[in-house]
Amino acid sequence: MRTEHVQQGKDHDAKVRELATTFQSKNSVAPMKVPDIQYCEINLNGTSYERTLLKRLRYTSLAKLIAFMAAGRRTEAIAILGKEVIQPRGLVGQATDSIDSSGGELKQIFHLLADAGKYPIFFHCTSGKDRTGLVTFLLLLILDIPLDVVAVDYMASEAQLVSERHLRIQELRAMGLSDDFADCPPHWVKDVHNHIRQTYGSAQEYLDRIGVGENVRRKIRSILLMQT
I want to staple 177 with a disulfide (CB 3.0 to 4.6 A). Which of 98, 136, 181, 186 is the partner? Predict the structure, then answer.
């Protein structure tokens, strides 16, 4: 019986790996590009992140999701992940999952930010507050900005996104997510920071762990902070 359970677990993991790769390939739509601009396309929520989400699905839900993907019903497949995995974990869980599983992508981003020859740099995501918010959160910690100021900066995004909130909500509902996923909750910065401290010890230790060492952080500070 134990052997059967081990084999089932291996089969489940194999399906998750294959499906995560499929999600990425289905999502590979070439964006419109402005001439004479250098693009560095880094998907913060790439294959590793998607595997993390897929592993949290029940076997029956995973099978249903695979069936939807095979039938070309991608929106309904994503809604299963939304309802069963992302919604219960909330925006904080979404961020901490990225922290735990997307270290390689974050390393790429911060190594770019440490290259003075790449500036000016404009980084963004779909809504401009979740993945972008996480990168900005970590960047401000590298710059030694007080946590309460970081929180104010994060929450400022909500007012800037009001004009498109109704469209964003329609997209969220189609993904099985509630309307509050369009907001910037005031506890987000504190909760994400607490996760980093409890799991890794500190933001510095986390950044060291993913390959964004003090030398890289020093370069970023020298570029972005005014010298006195």
Answer: 181
